[in-house]
Give the backbone structure.
Amino acid sequence: MGRFFVAVYLALNFSVAQGQEQVTWSADIACLVYTHCTPCHNDKGIAPFPLQSYEDAYRFRYGIEPIIASRQMPPWPPSTDYGDLAHERVLTQEEIDLFQHWVEQGAAEGIPDQAPTPPVYASSLEITDPDFSVRLPSFEIPDLREYDLYRCFVIPTNESEDRYITGIEIAPGNRKVVHHVILFQDTSGIPEQLDAADPNLGYTCFGGIGTNTASMVAGWVPGSSAFSAPEGMGIYLPKGATLVAQIHYPEGSAGEIDSTLINIKFSDQTALRRIENIPVLNHFLGIDRPLFIPANTRQTFHETFSPVPFKVIVTGIAPHAHLICESMKAYATTLTGDTIPLINIPHWDFDWQGFYEFKKPVIIPAFSTLHGEATYNNTTSNHHLPGDIPVDVSVGEATTDEMMLFFFSFAVYQQGDENLVIDNNQHTPHYNDCSYAGMTVATQDYAAGSPWKIWPNPASSFLHIETSTSADVVVIRLTDLWGRFILEERMTDNQRQINLPEGLPSGVYLCQISDQSGVRSAWKKVIISR
Ligand code: HEC
């Protein structure tokens, strides 16, 4: 290519770079939406409208912008600075700013071909290849006459060997009326007898499932997603065990039909480490006073479990309360006076409860004390109050009663557990690894704190990269100004030479270095002149 052509090419590319400062759907926003929103906002998902195209996002742009800025969406009630939870659904401030700029600048589409391909959601289920799957028969909820219904459905497993559950997903058939599902396992034969004695499908149960030999396997509450056990661990299911799903249909559900689905993955192994799911902190034992919240009062309760008899690892936690609860928090204190934060939910939302896992299992030393705190607001300042005026609330199973439970998923500590990892990402991995062509130009000096060099620049056949970072592995990516992928290489040393592909046209390119998670990254413009 002659000198003249190189000059024209560069000029064109620079004008493109200028144009890119405008935030567009194709270059910037689609990536964020496909990463953080469409997992729920798709045509089969749980959110009320899809966000699967530019048209969808454009239509809802004024609704989206403030809801992201106030961090109401994506829904993630726990504080991000208390406990180290896995799979956090949170946007970075940079991502929030980008949305805001997009809307302010008129929410342009940009160049449609350059948007990432939209994800396809074949099913709203997370476990699509279960080893055991059951859809409960259609159940018409009878007239409850102002009572909540707790109905137990018996599910024989017919497994001839002991099994370990490594994944489980419960998908309510009718989300309008399913308040919760708790799945138990039992081998006493009593649930079958109770079922046979009731002429209708299942049997009515309250509290538990009518036996005291049952143990909890999993649960679904609004906001739950599928459970998957950490590597090498599982929930024990004895051979021949019966699963019993206790489903709570609140008052006012009469006439509705539900048919809930349960999908389970089993391990191939016959012996696995057991995870127990137990409400270790609860309002039956270890609460500082009975859970009673008189009308027009705000009350904080404290639960403890002490001492933890041996060293354990906690892989997950699920706080549970009902409507008038305002906040929930759990932590552990050790004999040496350390506090181990577990979870803090500053604005409890009954509709967004979850089973939360930790990035790494939390190690709790023997003889520690577990603590739970919850505040209930039974005054008119609480807009989640079930009625118009506050009435006395006490402990109970109805939605309008209250509870204070913290389910712990834990296992006895084993040597080496320090190395277990449940979630390695600092930030939700970006859908299709899409890169931000638009942002890169603006943020190219991001790496000021960790100098790195690239030479020669302009380059013709190779690039030499030198960093001062201490990260074990640095990923180098070369893209064009649109963020289109050209090559990716890893450097495990502070220096690396990369040969440029033959046939790569002269022009301006972007070279990104980042740590393995892709979160800490920096960019430089590179000119290739051949
Ligand atoms: C985990 C599932 C989930 C994710 C992820 C999610 N949403 Fe939602 N979204 C919902 C549900 C469910 C609702 C319905 C209201 C509710 O239940 O809070 C909703 C409601 C909304 C609303 C309407 C809110 C209102 O008050 O009317 C907007 C706007 C919205 N979402 C935007 C987004 C955007 C933008 C993203 C990505 C940045 C996102 N959501 C991510 C599930 C989700």
